[in-house]
Amino acid sequence: MADVTTGIGFDAHRFGGPGPLRLAGVVVDVGRGLDATSDGDVAVHAVMDAMLGAAALGDIGTHFPSDDPRWRGADSMQLLALVHAMVADTGLRLLHVDLTIVSESVRVAPHREAMRTALAHALGLGVGAVSVKASTTDGMGWTGRDEGVAALAVATLDQA
User: Fold this and answer.
1) Fewer CB near the last or first residue (10 Å), C or N of the chain?
2) Which CATH number fits domain 4-159: 1.10.10.10, 3.90.550.10, 3.40.920.10, 3.30.1330.50?
3) Tens of pLDDT along 118-152?
4) What is each CA distance from 29 to 90, 101, 105, 111, 126, in whole angstroms?
């Protein structure tokens, strides 16, 4: 395996289900939720998939299948801790996470530092190693119609 590996993760969920809406472990909207098996935290799910990809460990559906009742309503931050341990067990360590949240109506800016802090704490990183950004699709597609939220993440790992 290379000294440094990089993985990309993506997740998306439509609005629905019970609130609150959590992104990167932070409540960003108490009145809305996302339709998902777990708590639907697309930001954390994208980070998990990026980490798993960088470690060549498959994807979150492999480890936490949506048809398994154990994961119904699961706290994504707890799942992130499990993925972090899986990655560490391979002899790799997480160096950096870059996360982009895509939504027409969910405002990330007021929560950005709390999101960075929550992810950094969960992953044993300094806040400076966690980037959280936001984007819209300027009214295009399902995110532009405000039907849900998507997230894209990149994780960088190296040999521990």
Assistant:
1) C
2) 3.30.1330.50
3) 999 999 999 999 999 999 999 999 999 999 999 99
4) 36, 14, 10, 11, 26
